[in-house]
Amino acid sequence: MRRARAHAGARAKVSTVVVLALLLGALALVPAASVAAAGSSGLAARNAVDVAAGDLDVIHLAGATSFAEILARNLSAAALLVAGAPLAGVPTVGGGIVIGFGVGAGMRAVLEALGPTELAARVLAYAPLELLGILGAAAAGFAPLVAVVLDRARRDGGRCLRSAIVSGLVVAARLGGVSVVAIVVAGAVEAVLVASSSS
Q1: How far apart (Å, rounded) are the C-alpha atoms in residues 121 and 117?
Q2: Phi/psi at 88 (5° precision)
Q3: Residues 179, 154: Cα–Cα separation, whole Å
Q4: Whole-number Å distance between alpha carbons of 59 and 181
């Protein structure tokens, strides 16, 4: 009975670390993405005829056309975010701002070039999973910091610092693994879509 309660308590702590790390990850990514995505120059309206004729494609906006190029771009972004795990989240904050700005600007460029209908048809098949992978990587970057802060905030003084850090690193590794899987699957879908639209 005691063991079951202790196990349930440990799961609750891990869940709390994951949720708070996800929130911090979103705080690092979303504001910059929102700022970059704001505004419109009316490019979609000017490109509507070209898009309808098949003369303009999102491939040229994204830059990466092969599965390897797509994975290199997305996994390197995730690696930068996860790098914050042993470094108190510092690289995750900086990387989150830069990556968030890039995602927002990229989505704005695609939206302006293709319009909302083409954006939905070409990008929504993989973008949510890809963004979930990036968000998970950002959460992994913050997980040890969140675990330590939560542990230090406990009334009974918590565990030793090393134990809290190790616990956070385990959560970070799990989040990082799930993020890699999401990014690889999204990259495969994106590569298939790019290959089918370029032929």
Answers
A1: 6
A2: 60, 30
A3: 29
A4: 23
Phi, psi for 63 (deg, rounded to 5): 90, -30
Q: For residues 113 and 57, what is the distance between their CA atoms, to the nearest angstrom?
A: 8
Confidence of residue 37 (pLDDT cuts 50, 70, 90): low
pLDDT tens for 64-89 read 678 888 888 899 999 999 999 999 99
Q: Residues 6 or more apart from 190 whose CB is under 8 A from it?
A: 70, 125, 126, 130
Can you tell me which residue has the tokens 């970070």?
A: 172
Q: Amino acid identity of 37?
A: A
- Dihedral sign from CA coordinates of 143, 21, 18, 137: negative
